[in-house]
Amino acid sequence: MGLDLSPKLAKKVYGDDGGSYYAWCPNELPMLREGNIGAAKLALEKNGFALPRYSDSSMVAYVLQGGGVAGIILPESEEKVIAIKKGDAIALPFGVITWWYNKEDTELVVLYMGDTSKGHKPGQFTDFFLTGFNGIFTGFTTDFVKRAWDVDDDIVKALIGNQKGKGIVKLDANVKMPEPKPDHRKGMALNCEEAPLDTDIKNAGNVVLLNTQNLPLVGQVGLGADLVRLEGNAMCSPGFSCDSALQVTYIVKGSGRLQVVGVDGKRVLETIVKAGNLLIVPRFFVVSKIADPGGLSWFSIITTPNPMFTHLAGSIGAWKAISPEVLQAAFKVTAETEKLFRSKRTNDAIFFPPPKAKLKHPFSYLLVSLNTLELLLVIISLNYSILLLFLY
């Protein structure tokens, strides 16, 4: 596979005082087009309002920063107005209409990743705005608008011409927006930073899975997701998606080393990843990460609603299930080597804590000096005893 797998940053597509919209381009990250995956980010400043829209793709939205309000209208359903905050994951099936609003001082940043296989452009989301300079009202003639919505000429003129913004606008501070309703949130969002951990390894890392059990809407989206947090210098076991799914990974926080091994045992990627990077691991390719001292966190979507992974190291690693004789023959090693290999990582699953330091103790020279001093004192004591014997 000759595709460029190196991680990329998003680029600004449009924006104004209210905020900006960023996207990853398939020309720079070819795996987007190859895997029919789209990825984008919405950043809203205070009073920023993302106009109502729908997309040609199903997707998962993940709140990277800040808080705000989201309006979600599923086909033939009433509007759900929910409060959103950092760590929230929201499943957005086909045909859903959304709007987003930030009334806080902190910038609201939302990540979108989804399936573009049924979209207009492979590897890219195409949004259809209901209002604004490029909204659907501007495309119809006035007589169609009048007849469809049963309004007069003045109303038609206002509907078509008043909103000059494109995609994102900044509202006046006195504009009143709908208040979120707590009961609307049920079944619409899952906070991955507060949800029960599916795996938690002390001093190593943890993971929260997003699937049909804790957010049934992902079944309609056709995607699964996870939030993984690695402690400083910890390692994520080499592994791969065993159900022919792609992994699309966004680095949320921190930095670290990443390696991907593909066909014929070739290392197809070795790089440093950092916050803001997006990368895609091809089907069945093996990936592993080691966090820098500050730790490493990432949010991934997997192109199946209930993903399955095979890990090659750790207490649940695939090697543990293979019989000793097969391993010995496959690696062409002695029974002793195979036994040693199998005896490792019997307690750690998926995530591995940093290796224990084997550095020389910083005060070891004092210990040596102390031993020498003790020896001198013994010698002096013996000599003094002998001297006393001669005197008496």
Automatic annotation (TrEMBL):
Q: Name one GO molecular function term.
A: nutrient reservoir activity
State the UniProt keywords alphabetically. Answer: Disulfide bond, Membrane, Seed storage protein, Signal, Storage protein, Transmembrane, Transmembrane helix
Q: Does the keyword Ribonucleoprotein apply?
A: no
Q: Name one GO biological process term.
A: seed maturation
- Give a yes or no for keyword Membrane in this entry: yes
What SMART domains does this protein's entry cite? Cupin_1
> Transmembrane stretches, by residue range?
363-391
Outline the extent of the Cupin type-1 domain. Answer: 3-157, 195-339
Question: What single Pfam family name could you report for this chain, choosing any that match?
Answer: Cupin_1
Give the UniProt family note: Belongs to the 11S seed storage protein (globulins) family.
Q: What is this protein called?
A: Cupin type-1 domain-containing protein
